[in-house]
Amino acid sequence: MSTNEYPYEENGYTLYSNRLCPYAQRALRAFDIAQVPHKLVEIDLKNKPEWYHLVNPQLKVPALRTPSGAILIESLVIAEFVADQNPEAHLLSADATERAQLRLFIELFATRYNPYIYRILMAVDKEEQEKHKQTLLDGLKEISKELERQWKRPSGKNGPFWYGQWGYAEVAQSSFVGLLVPLAHYRGFSVPETKEFAAFNRWRQAILQAPEFTKFKPEDQPLIDAYKKFVPDA
Ligand SMILES: N[C@@H](CCC(=O)N[C@@H](CS)C(=O)NCC(=O)O)C(=O)O
């Protein structure tokens, strides 16, 4: 390949991904649920191909090349693009209020859950670990309350998923639910089986059993191995 070439599907979608990456799994699951044919290019993050900067100068996965040659980056941008391009898959509601409520749920994860997975793994100091664990538990209580509110709404259909059935919330967040595996392994973190976490635990159990999740779920050991890089004392 010459220095200005990279692999892609002519007139089709090309998804640059890595199967252990929770962000890339968002894009994979969006394509899967919308049943959009695409070429998958697995990027070895430890040994990235030289041409990858032509696709994403930030050198991160996922990235998407569309049939028109546009390159999209950022997992949620890609997932939303797939949802918008394929309205028949009903990944996102057409109702603005329902979309806003879903965005709030994803925002809750972005501020109260996802960063704390990494902070707990990265903290060597026990006190700091405990502080971050408590913040994560506080976030999970909020997430549980939000799930309970949603399940009572008509669009929540009593759960167990955000829209009753598997949809955009699970596409966006299930891979981060999967990160509780390395968190339990390295830091002994678990979500208590008490009332305040009951909704999150119900949602998580439904996710773990869903074929839409297991299809792209990495095996526990490779995921644990991949996350070792975030744990300075491991
Ligand atoms: N905000 C980005 C984050 C993507 C991201 O951080 N991906 C990681 C892998 S999970 C990556 O490619 N890191 C570059 C590297 O490992 O060199 C998104 O949502 O797509």
TrEMBL record:
GO cellular component, one term: cytoplasm
Pfam assignment, any one: GST_N_3
Protein name (database record): GST N-terminal domain-containing protein
Database matches in InterPro entries: Glutathione-S-Trfase_C_sf (IPR036282), Glutathione_S-Trfase (IPR040079), Glutathione_S-Trfase_N (IPR004045), GST_Omega/HSP26 (IPR050983), Thioredoxin-like_sf (IPR036249)
UniProt xrefs under PANTHER family: GLUTATHIONE S-TRANSFERASE OMEGA, PTHR43968
SUPFAM superfamilies: GST C-terminal domain-like, Thioredoxin-like
Domain GST N-terminal: 11-90
